[in-house]
Amino acid sequence: MQPDINADRATAVNVDAPLSSIPQAAPLKSGGRVPMALWQAALGIAVLLVWQGASGRLVDNFFISNPLDVGARLYRWTMDGTIFQHIGATLYATGMGFVIGSVGGAVLGIWLGVSPFASRLLNPYLNALNALPKVALAPLFVLWFGLGIESKIALAAVLVLFLVFLNTFAGVREVDQDLIDGARLMRATRAQVIIKVIIPSAMSWVFAGLKIAMPYALIGAVLGEMIAANRGLGYLVQFSGSQFDTAGVFAVLFVIALLAVGLNHLVDMVQSRTERWRIVSR
Amino acid sequence: MIRIENVSKSFYKRDTAVDAVQNMNLTIERREIVAVIGPSGCGKSTLLNMIAGLYAPTRGRVVYKDAPVSGINTDVGYMTQKDSLLPWRSVRDNVAFPLELAGVAKAERSDRADQVIQHVGLRGFEERYPNELSGGMRKRACLGRMMLYGAETALLDEPFAALDAQLKLAMHDLMLRLASENDQTVVLVTHDLMEAVTLADRVLVCTRRPATIALEQRIDLERPRDVLNVRFSSAFKEHYDTLWERLRVEYSEDRV
Ligand SMILES: Nc1ncnc2c1ncn2[C@@H]1O[C@H](COP(=O)(O)OP(=O)(O)OP(=O)(O)O)[C@@H](O)[C@H]1O
Ligand SMILES: [Mg+2]
Question: What superfamily would CATH give domain A65-281?
Answer without folding.
Answer: MetI-like (1.10.3720.10)
